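__Record contents__

***
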Amino acid sequence: MTGIQRALISVSDKTGITDLAHALAGLGIEILSTGGTAATLRAAGIQVTDVSEVTGFPEIMDGRVKTLHPLIHGGLLGRHDQDGPVMAQHGIRPIDLAIINLYPFEATVARADCSRADAIENIDIGGPAMIRAAAKNHAFVAVVVDPADYAGILAELGDGKAGLGEATRRRLARKAFAHTASYDAAIWRYLEDHEGDGTLPERLPIGLQRSQELRYGENPHQRAALYRTAGAAAGTLLDARLHQGKPLSFNNIADADAALECAKALASPACVIVKHANPCGVGLGGTLSDAYEKAHATDPESAFGGVIACNAPVDDRLAATILERQFLEVIIAPAFSEAALAVLARKPNVRVLAIGTLPDPARPSLRLQQVEGGILVQDKDVATLGRDQLRVVSQRQPSAQEIDDAWFAWRVVRFVKSNAIVYCRDGATLGIGAGQMSRVMSARIAAWKASEAGLDIRGSAMASDAFFPFRDGIDAAAGHGISVVIQPGGSMRDEEVIRAADEHGMAMLFTGMRHFRH
């Protein structure tokens, strides 16, 4: 470990940079810098040497070329124990500390008015090259890419003579390579979204950035954290404003995401209550309070300790009703009135999350699921089916009300774990059967839960996320007075299943689209 004599500073994010540079200069460390960073440091009274003075070559092409030079990269890559003679021969002086962060590409492309030219000009080239050079040579060079590390670096430097320890330089190098990998992933994501051909890529850069450390995972013995993907759209849990309550747990986040995905896919106002990743009640209403009443009535027992998502702003009336009616972990909505926040503050442990404007639920994206040794990748299950594409396959034509009920049930069932059965009527779920190994068992459970809640499912619609392999599911539904069934169709026994519906005088609609959810 040797002392630090020369530092290169080139940053777009100038948070804390003048304080750091003042401290480095106070330790007698020479500072090299570029463009806007050099101007910022000089304005703060810090002595700086321009990189162009070192290279003898001016910044050109609007700053595209300024650090790509042997006198800079040689200083970053030179191994003090073996490259000394060649460095001396070419007048290359070592650079011991590189403090670099990159053009704000993600912030730029997130702007609504960002043009392709703006995006391209915010692809940093010199910065990643210097970061990678310094990180490769971490045996001799420390590279810092995050302002959060400045205080720790100064504390370890002490009087500047000891330098930074090997463990620190290795840690910083790992962080630096992760930084450039994520940066490249964000660029790829932008180009793929705007110019890709729609096929799944041969290579899939993910570029995850830790957003939040969690106390633990699904269980207390599991480590966990929440990461943001490169190019993630706004209007997600990661951007939500936490008005009150402690940070969300791993299970809270999983349930809240499931609830929000369902709520934003429905017409407003809608309310969704989720427990253990499954909706236990969903309602549409003339008001959000009406929607909540319907959602809660589906399964009051399971709603206890659940997560509530609304797709419209929450007022004080609804907030008061919820607190009187049930214990809850999380409530999510685009916004909350000040009066609603005051009511919810009576229960400070309830996590209150404001999402802001809800994104388009049909926005395409990829879904990733880890398996041992790899990752499964698929398109998000976006409902592209229109009501005019429903096909009546039964002898009896459904009424307008039955079509409404079936359509609502179909919108809900894709958010229920397969095998999934949902009974609905008048914009309310009446019974939900989720995650069973047998579809007929899901149908029986959904009916049993409706009965437990005191709800009559006669005359309601039944939705199935996949086809019925046998007629037994239809026979079970008929026994409970179900009047219309909506399902994908496509079974080798479709004729048998349709015949069962006809025998019971039920209407049946085929969608031609399956909605498994594992």
